[in-house]
Amino acid sequence: MHTLTGMFSYDIPVLHLVNRFWIGGAERQFVERLRRHPAGFRAIVGCLEASGPMLEQVRSFGYEPHVFPLNGSMARPNTALQIARMAALIRAEDVKIVHATDFNTNLLGLAAARLGGAKAVVSRVDLGHIRTGFTRWHREAEKLNSRFADIVVANADAVKAVCIRDEGCGPDKVMVVRNGLDLEQFDALAAQPLQAPLPEGRLVAVIGNLWPVKGHRTLVEAVALLPAEFHDVRFVCAGEGPEREVLTRRIAELGLGERVILLGHRLDVPAMLARAHLACLCSSAEGLSNALMEAMAARLPIVATQVGGNPELVSDNGLLVPSGDARALASGLAQLLSQPEEGRAMGARGRKRIEQELSLDRMADGHGALYRRVLGRAPYVGDQAALRPA
Which domains does the chain carry? Predict the structure, then answer.
């Protein structure tokens, strides 16, 4: 029987589960978790679908994912089979902790951990808002899953508060480990050529998939309200999703085709940010935004909505505006676009906060402390890394 005492004499197996390797905030942080895995713990990777542009990064680290295919709805007998397969892997590899990442793997990982005799860590990276395709049973399942897990890991104080206040989790069971950013890798990617050309002129980077929660409709209305002196500014939107059709139509109606550009999925976001002058995030709900963190790393001033974890990132490095308020958003954009020197100072302050408070090493330390806590061998210290209140 392995024990955790003093220095580790072996690497404790941790099974990391993710739905698939598409482009998104949770998936990116999954990759970063593997990139700088906590000392004393050995990562094993599992997924429900071996697809997506981030899969090759995971393989480049030396991990070949174990695949547990759902093949559609979870309300099928196959789901029980995949949980049993996960449990068999847990027993075969002597896995001590199952660390799940998203809705599907949180549910399956908890069940498999119970069957396989491992501890279950589930992740919460948002405010529990209703995503496209979600129903009431999804939310109830999400709440129950958080209550029955051994530990819930949240990426922001705002997410932790939702788990405790709205979902009935015990305060001692919800831990905060903030997202981390590998600045060395980010800077190297920022120096690379662009995947495809960007428009000339002043650029505002809007990074986020085209989901309703990301607030692109508000962005389009705000751009239409900007005074003529800002008509040379181009809003470049990196991301894809179900809002594309309605956004394309509204952009055409307002005559903004040359000013709001939907770029689709981009794998060169750091290089885009390096060429931008400002970053904007219009979400109606957020955990701890990777898009904001990357904008901070790129030394960009930020205009973001005052929701979720955004105030934990944006204080003296940008402006916060109410969600869904196109006039307030337009005003904030105009203010920063008209004050480039102040914007550069804001950007420098944002970069410094990433360096000091949101490094990849700091995130790895937080996960290591969390794993020791869930195994009952050491107190959790991750909350000591909390950011200053905005």
Answer: 12-180+359-385 (3.40.50.2000), 184-357 (3.40.50.2000)
Q: Give the number of other Cβ atoms within 10 Å of residue 378's Cβ.
A: 13
Q: Could you tell me which residues are beta bridge partners of residue 99?
A: 16, 121
pLDDT at 129: 55
Please list the ranges in the chain whose pLDDT falls under 50. Answer: 1-9, 130-132, 379-390
Give me the pLDDT at residue 166, please: 85
pLDDT for position 389: 31
Q: How far apart are CA 331 and CA 285, in angstroms?
A: 21
3-state secondary structure at position 197:
coil
Report the C-alpha gap between 264 and 290 in whole angstroms: 18
Looking up tokens 């998203």 gives 102
Label the pairing between strands 66-67 and 97-100: unpaired
Q: How far apart are CA 35 and CA 309, in angstroms?
A: 24
Residue 367 to residue 212: CA distance in whole angstroms: 31
pTM (two decimals) = 0.85
Task: Give Dmax (Cα) for the chain.
Answer: 71
Beta strands 234-238 and 119-124 are: unpaired
Q: How far apart are CA 282 and CA 306, in angstroms?
A: 9
